[in-house]
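stuck on this fold:
=====
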Amino acid sequence: MPVEIRAKIKEIIQRNYNVKSFRLEVPGTLDFKAGQFLSVELENNPKFRRYLSISSSPTEKCHLEFTKKLTQSDFSKALNNLKAGDQVSIEYPFGKFILDESLAKVAFLSGGIGITPVRSICKYAVDKNLGIDMVLVYSNRSVRDIVFKDDFDAMAKSYPSLKIAHVLCETETGFKCTVGLINSSVIRNEIPDYRERKFYLCGPPQMVEAMRKILVEEMGLNSGRIITENFQGY
């Protein structure tokens, strides 16, 4: 059952030019599954309440973290004004976008800030050394839009069964990626054994639906092998 608590901001991390992570000091024991989400309310004002994915892993026991792309919305502006020591109200956990630990192989298709629950799941699998073979195909406009790049690089280095494939609209010299958008050709190229995997899709709702259609209608996957999360954290 979700619980509602008051939590203090322990640390704020700038992830890229328009994305920040907020690490919370939460009283009691952290109780959630990797990939779930929470609600955040600022200033005791329901107007400033949003549902955001948890970007930390249950293995990171010193904090609970959520990550937000900062836009020109009133909520983003209020969030951006927070500092360490401030308090927020949270309710968690919610959601069923969680890893089936019995699987041998999984794949993640993600875009933009939709990477947050994927970071939580991958960090959990790596820290627990689950042995699951994981492939992430991650779409962004440019290198500077990538979130958690250093984290994923470190995870892939320590956990050989994790492969990261970047898909960018704009690339930089020397950066390994596919230029364009995620389509069936990209998926087949990066995940040749795709029929053996369960797919986790997370990103903007239009992207998630497009990826689902590609997997089912173009690539013949059973919809039961697809787990979706229409990310709300914009």
Q: What stands out?
A: The chain has a mean pLDDT of 95. The longest strand covers residues 3-16.
